[in-house]
Specification:
2 copies of one chain form a homodimer. Chain A is of the alpha+beta class. In chain A, a hairpin with a 2-residue loop joins strand 4 and strand 5. In chain A, about 55% of the residues are buried. The longest helix of chain A has 21 residues. A 6-stranded mixed sheet of chain A has the order 1-2-6-3-7-17, with helices on both faces. A 4-stranded antiparallel sheet of chain A has the order 11-13-9-14, with helices on one face. In chain A, strands 4-5-18 form a 3-stranded antiparallel sheet. Chain A has 2 domains: about 290 residues, Aminopeptidase; about 120 residues, 2-Layer Sandwich (Alpha-Beta Plaits), CATH 3.30.70.360. Chain A has 13 helices and 18 strands. Chains A and B meet through strand 9, strand 10, helix 6, helix 9 and strand 11 of A and strand 9, strand 10, helix 6, helix 9 and strand 11 of B.
Chain lengths: ~450, ~450
């Protein structure tokens, strides 16, 4: 089956006819405050999974199979709209848990879906409940058009808290969740009207440095000058690892696995709609380490980082108290780019520090491997065609500076390629007050998903 | 009048006869929790000043003049045992406020003076109520021996919170508190049996560095690598200022005003009873930046420092959260040695940082100037003789690594030399649980003060 058998007009009609389903289902999900980071919302996270299960179970197709999968933490929802053994299977990944919605900046109740014109406002509207409902309608439209593809859904509820139980749960249910490809819809375009799909994600290696030099606070007059200062020593360690001003990592070999961008990748980055000025405005920053657009993009998407996130130890009240603390801790992380690994990076950091500062302890926290996606080949071409079908313009393959832990887990455990068909826009406000999704993205998204399924029915045919 | 007219035996008799006065007065003061840092004890600080006023007013001498001096904060107590216009006047400085006595390590009620053998246990027993009562008895013994010297007392109640109102109050009462010399009794010998008197105090320049690079937390995946990291930058600033491992300050000219020690000073330091091993044991530290005794003493008493005391900004909970904070603050201080000044040191630091890191703000907090005391000349000789008389061994002139803000204030405002006749021992536990004073130090101290007054009656004679 090829794209030619789907008509963009038919898809527009389908979307218009099902807009009320879209709004009802999105409301069912947004109106439940599934804030996974807040234990006070534990019941709501489960209620949201139940609500999603009800939406999927009630989908107007024959033989839908749904299952709530317990993970040890919050559950996952799995559903298959069809299970024809002659057809390939594609699984759509979304998440149902959301960020908190504290603070006074919300102009509407964040947990009551509010429609203003074509905007659907509420916590989770764009991250990631709106894209989930859009993908479902895309699958239903493909189903009604007879696309010979089994579409499954895997909706987790621990994404905002690190997907702690995701990999082990997939491992325990490999037969249930088996698939030929995965499509993730949880990424953000660079700008409206320019569809973009990440062909790579950065990984994340969080770690802590600790140093103890005494058993209790020391008087900086009586002992100062002779006793060690763990804060000053750890600052020296960090400054030996990274140039704090430029961000350049000084650890030998740190960049060895980084692959240079191809000219095609650079061209795609530059044509993604990215603007340094828009970036500064969106993030409310006046000065950056770098202002050349390509260099900025290289640093965001194609180079690793070494960031300091916090310091524990010593006095933090008003003014200055002059005790010398007995111990200190620095919280750090590195974002990793494809071809790097958490273990090798950690080894380099630990060796560098261990040789120069033998008293300093390096503590690794659970990491996320980087992910290399596909910017060429039949699967990337299917994504490209799908966006063109849905939104009428060519898509570009960019990268994602952030990390989605579930992606390398799915690739490895499900032994499937992972594609990205994201629908969110920067102005939708991931994690921000007054988060929204909009019908333009939903309508185009339904068509794009339908087209992607049609393409993959051919590409993945057994 | 010379020392020859006082007999050590008579002083021993005087001390033994007045031991009950010593114990009663010390109990009157220690049993009041005059914790100046804790607003909950505000009433107690004033009660303690009133109690001290009653003790001084009731002293068995004719014509004692006492006054409570309001400061705008907690009061000062001033008293003159005599006011003979033909005699010189010496003022004894002590403080009545104490450190908190929290925690479970106290074996007795810290605010109930407890006697175990020759030990007097309670918060403030050695810092600084015991030395105050000892000096009073020394003055009464000198009075009864007919020493032609007016002795006055200046007891403040804000020492543990930085003597904020001390200088301005002296300025406002220069006539009331006029004197020919000041004796401070609030310092610690290096070891029992080896009287030592500081011939210099370090000053203190507390300051803060702040840097703002954004308006809110930034996502280290979406923005990391391009946006600035204020914690990493401030760590680089600190590491440019000081070698965190050795403590060596890297700011050009920082050490320019530091005067090298004379051979006599080095000899005095080395014969003070200082032991590197005892220092490590007392402060519960295993490793030091330096282990040679003379180098250790140079760093403690005769070299400036650059210490990091705390960091504000970013995440400080368990594990690692990977946001990049929008701003950070580092709390620091330098101890200064004689011939350095707060202003010149601050200027050097601010210039160095301003040239290299123009976005970083340097905020100075109120500082304390260093103080150069006297290790030779008639006043120093008087201190030497007094200790020899009281304790039977020669005293050494050392330095104090800490800062006593009142000392340079008194020298400058009262235009008087400041001498030190401290009586506390390291094992007495300044600021520590189970703080105590002991009768051996009190008895020797009464004799030493009497001898000092006799010496100064001659030395300061108009």
């Amino acid at each position: 089956m090829s794209l030619l058998s789907l008509s963009r007009g038919d898809l527009a009609t389908f979307a218009a006819q099902h807009r009320s389903d879209f709004e009802r289902w999105l409301g069912d999900l947004v109106n439940i405050p599934s804030v996974s980071v807040d234990p006070a919302h534990a019941v709501d996270v489960r209620r949201c999974a139940d609500s999603a299960l009800a939406i999927l179970s009630g989908a107007p197709v024959t033989a839908v199979q749904t299952q709530l999968i317990e993970t040890g933490g919050y559950p996952m929802v799995h559903a298959r709209l069809s299970a024809n053994p002659d057809w390939p299977t594609v699984t759509i990944y979304n998440h149902l848990d959301v960020q908190p919605a504290d603070g006074d900046d919300w102009r509407t109740d964040p947990f009551q879906l509010t429609q203003h014109g074509a905007r659907y406002i509420g916590r989770g509207a764009t991250d990631d409940k709106g894209p989930a409902v859009t993908a479902l309608l895309g699958a239903l439209s493909a189903r009604s058009a007879g696309v010979p593809l089994n579409v499954a859904f895997l909706w987790e509820t621990e994404e905002e808290i690190g997907s702690e139980h995701f990999a082990s749960t997939l491992q325990a249910h490999t037969e249930l969740v088996r698939t030929d490809a995965v499509v993730v819809s949880d990424t953000i375009w660079i700008t409206r009207g320019k569809p973009s799909s990440p062909a790579g994600l950065r990984g994340l290696l969080p770690f802590r440095l600790t140093l103890r030099t005494a058993t209790n606070d020391l008087h900086s007059g009586i002992t100062g000058g002779v006793v060690r200062n763990p804060l000053a020593e750890l600052m020296q360690v960090v400054s030996a690892c990274v140039d704090g001003t430029t961000g350049r990592v000084l650890i030998p070999g740190f960049y060895d696995e980084v692959e240079p961008l191809t000219l095609q990748e650079e061209d795609a980055f530059l044509s993604s709609g990215f603007s340094v000025e828009a970036f500064k405005r969106d993030h409310h920053v006046d000065s950056l380490r770098e202002t050349d657009a390509l260099e900025v993009l290289r640093r965001l998407w194609a180079l690793p980082t070494f960031e300091v996130h916090g310091v524990v130890g010593g006095y933090t009240g008003p003014g200055v108290k002059t005790a010398i603390p007995p111990a200190a801790e620095v919280k750090l992380s590195s974002r990793l780019v494809p071809n790097m690994t958490c273990q090798k990076t950690l080894d380099r950091i630990a060796t560098f520090i261990g040789e120069r500062f033998p008293d300093v302890q390096v503590h690794a926290e659970p990491g996320l491997e980087p992910y290399r996606g596909q910017a060429s080949g039949p699967l990337a071409d299917a994504v490209r065609s799908a966006y063109r079908f849905g939104f009428g313009v060519d898509a570009v393959f960019t990268r994602e500076g952030g990390s989605i832990g579930a992606v390398p887990s799915m690739e490895q455990i499900l032994q499937s390629p992972v594609l990205f068909l994201g629908l969110s826009l920067p102005e939708h406000g991931y994690h921000a007050p007054n988060e929204f999704f909009d019908w333009e993205q939903a309508e185009g998204g339904i068509a794009a998903f339908a087209a992607l399924f049609a393409e993959l029915a051919t590409t993945l045919r057994h």
